[in-house]
Structures are given as C-alpha cells and as structure tokens.
Amino acid sequence: MRKFIIGTFSFFMLTVLSSFQTVKDSSCDSKALKEKSRKALDPYKYDSAKLTRITYRSKEFLREVEVPLFIGEKYRCVFNTETLSKGIVINVYNKDKDSRNRKLLFSTKDAPVTRTEHVWEHGHSTKIFVDYSVPAGDSATAPGCVLFMLGYK
To answer: Does 17 fall in a domain?
Structure first.
C-alpha cells in the first residue's frame, strides 16, 4: 500500500511540474516571436536574436545584455515584448552599466504602454549595451520574455 501511495504521489507531482513547464515555454515561444519580428527587419538581413526571460521580483531590477557589432555596418534592432505581463523600459547605451560617461542611444521610456514591438537603427560603434529595466511585481505577475533581434545592411 505504501508503494502505491508513493507511486501515485510521484506521478501526480511529475504531472504538475510538467504542466508548469509547458505554460512557461508556450509563453516564450522563441520561434513564433522570431517569425513575427523578422518582418520588422526588412530590408535588413537577419544576423542574430537573443531571448531574455523575465521573472518579476519584489523590487525593480536591471538586466543588461552586451551586443558586439562591426564598425562600418548599419544595424536595425527589433525588441518584441508581447509576452510580458508588465511593461519594461528598454535602454540602449554605448558603454556598460558600470562605466562612466555612458551615452543613452535609444529608449522606450516614452513609448506607449500598448506598443509591444520597438525598432531602432544604429551604425557607429563596436558594442552596444541593452538594459532591461524591470518593474517590481508580485507572485501573481506572470513571467515572460523579451526577444531582441539584430539585422544588418
């Protein structure tokens, strides 16, 4: 009888955990997000994409992504935030968050809250630093992700 109870409990826990994984992965389907965002790259050629998962915390926090670029190329950056339950602010800088005298190159701070796709063109540096400023959330705030897609000309 004890083995039956342990087996049943184990099966139940496995089923519950696998259902949570399915929900998490379906909200951040990178393939579907890339297909939607690829149209915004035209006439630029696809270079790369980065999916950043966002899990809200009790305090606001910053997540930074470094993007290496080639001098002489012109780039288009596409940010897709449609899976996020709360809006975030995306800022792009020429230097990392620990550097002095860094310059803000692009920001979504003043963009409408309903906009889920942001497009920006750039072409004169070897690196850019993308900062995701994530607002505070609670346990009821569903996690999501941001797709960053890069194209070149």
So the answer is: no
Average pLDDT of the residues in 39-58: 94
52: which 2 tokens? 């950043």
CA quadruple 121, 95, 79, 122: dihedral, nearest 10: 10
Distance in angstroms (rounded) separating the CA atoms of residues 131 and 103: 12
Query: E strands, the chain, where?
Result: 45-54, 61-68, 75-80, 89-93, 104-107, 117-122, 127-134, 144-152
Cα 103 from Cα 95, distance rounded (Å): 7
Q: What is the CATH number of the domain that holds 36?
A: 2.60.120.380
Task: Answer whether residue 3 is part of any domain.
Answer: no
Identify the domain containing residue 37 by its residue range: 30-152
Average pLDDT over residues 48-63: 94
Q: Coil, helix or strand for 119?
A: strand
What is the pTM assigned to this prediction?
A: 0.79
Q: Total structural domains in the chain? A: 1
